[in-house]
Amino acid sequence: MMPADPTDQVRATLQAFQDGYSARDFDRLDDFMALFVEDEGIELIGIGAAEPGSNEWFQGPAAVRDIVEGDWTYWGDVVLDVPGARITVSGDVAWLSTHGQIVQTSTHDEALPFYMEQMETLLKDESMDIDSRLMEATHFGMRRLRERAKGMGYGWPFTLTAVLQRVDGRWRFHTIHWAMPVD
Q: Over 90: is that where the pLDDT of 147 sits?
């Protein structure tokens, strides 16, 4: 049963998001996607995004589903501060901010093919000039090497902001933005 207070309802949706990332149950991925508005305008903006349509800026249900599947496959444990989330509700729209960490739970080598594919995508991105492509791919690679050096068990801090819409009495994500501090 959904709580009566809209702020508590939004928090319950955030908790369901956390639960999905904790469980990583690929058989329930389509159920997890019900946490999002059914609209081509939905967005999930990753930590490496710079502009819409570029690396790590995912738009539409299919792209969002793909990145969630990738997160569940290659990321460590996502731990959100659900109780401490700051939530504001105005009518049928809500926004929130919280923090958390991604705890590295597998060896870096397991994700290496995925990372190489991402670097290849950066190098082939013709929307950037060659110098920008090389810089982005190099930066991406250096971040992966740093992750590897930190090793398993390290918790990478991040912030998460989101916009939700109330649709048919249920709060659903429209936009999510993950961000990590520059270090």
A: no
Q: Residues 6 or more apart from 160 whose CB is under 8 A from it? A: 80, 97, 98, 99, 100, 176, 177, 178, 179
Name all contacts of 112-118 with Cβ < 8 Å and 24+ positions apart: 114/70, 114/73, 114/74, 115/140, 115/141, 115/144, 118/55
* In the predicted structure, residue 151 carries a pLDDT above the cut 80: no
- The β-bridge partners of 103 are 77, 155
Domains for the chain: give ranges and CATH numbers: 6-106+159-179 (3.10.450.50), 107-151 (no CATH)
* Residue-averaged pLDDT of the chain: 90
DSSP codes of every residue in 150-174: H-TT-EEEEEEEEEEEEETTEEEEE
pLDDT at residue 13 greater than cutoff 70: yes
25 or 122, higher pLDDT = 25
Provide the token pair at 146.
Answer: 């740093």
Tell me the pTM: 0.80
Q: Cα separation of 111 and 123, whole Å?
A: 19
Sign of the four-CA dihedral 117, 37, 33, 161: positive
* Alpha-helix residue ranges (DSSP H) falling in the chain: 6-23, 29-32, 61-74, 108-124, 130-150
